[in-house]
Specification:
Structural class: mainly alpha
Order of helices and strands: EHHEHHHHHHHH
Largest sheet: 2 strands, parallel
Strand content: under 5%
Distance between the termini: 36 Å
Radius of gyration: 19 Å
Number of helices: 10
Shape: globular
Mean pLDDT: 88
């Protein structure tokens, strides 16, 4: 049977999507849906930059710049964010799929689809988070959907607060969703899929926390 990539069904009706993916002999509609995700990601990154999310360090030093230099800096930040908006889905979907494909022995295109579902859920979470941060005037570490709120009571070191601030409830749900698909599609032991996913997200959180700690603007 032909499987047509449906991101909404993959997120909210995973049982049906998984059954169709298991029976799929040919997979269609991947590229147009991924292009759509890239566009949404770019818009989300640009919107976050417009509202100063993840760029608090630069915005806080506005008095140190002339208006002309400040506006030029904002354009550079926007350019960097847009590049990140292309790199992030590329690394998450295409490159990370190689990692899971090697160890789980699932067809590469099916791994790409599962990674697409995970990325789409994270993007949805980010879209929902932006108005919350803007309305409550919070930075990423104080994101109420992240563990950064709790870590600020337990740790004084800024890196650990950035690390836990990069772990959100949306990440945990995305991890469980990907585990559901990978554990069912792979013939490997379920713990292999779970271990690989935890390792993948742990590396992601460590790098995201590090980038936030050294003041490189991040979104996720």
């Amino acid at each position: 049977m032909n499987y047509h990539l449906n991101i909404v069904k993959g997120l909210f009706r995973p049982q049906i999507s998984l059954y169709q993916l298991q029976k799929a002999e040919a997979i269609k509609g991947v590229i147009p849906k991924l292009i759509f995700l890239y566009v949404i990601c770019l818009v989300t990154f640009a919107t976050s930059t417009y509202f100063g999310i993840g760029t608090e360090t630069y915005s806080g030093n506005i008095t140190n710049y002339t208006l002309e230099k400040y506006e030029s800096g904002k354009l550079l930040l926007l350019g960097g964010k847009l590049i990140s908006g292309i790199l992030f889905p590329t690394l998450f979907i295409w490159f990370a799929s190689i990692f899971f494909w090697i160890f789980l022995e699932i067809s590469y295109i099916k791994v790409v689809i599962v990674q697409t579902f995970g990325f789409a859920f994270l993007l949805l979470g980010q879209i929902l988070t932006i108005p919350v941060l803007v309305l409550l005037d919070l930075n990423l570490v104080s994101n109420p959907f992240s563990f950064g709120v709790l870590s600020q009571y337990a740790f004084e070191h800024e890196y650990w607060n950035s690390f836990f601030g990069s772990i959100t409830l949306f990440h945990l749900v995305a991890l469980m969703l990907q585990y559901y698909y990978f554990a069912s599609l792979s013939e490997k032991n379920r713990y292999v899929a779970l271990t690989l996913l935890i390792l993948f997200y742990l590396i992601t959180w460590l790098l995201t926390g590090l980038m936030a700690f050294i003041k490189i603007p991040v979104l996720f």
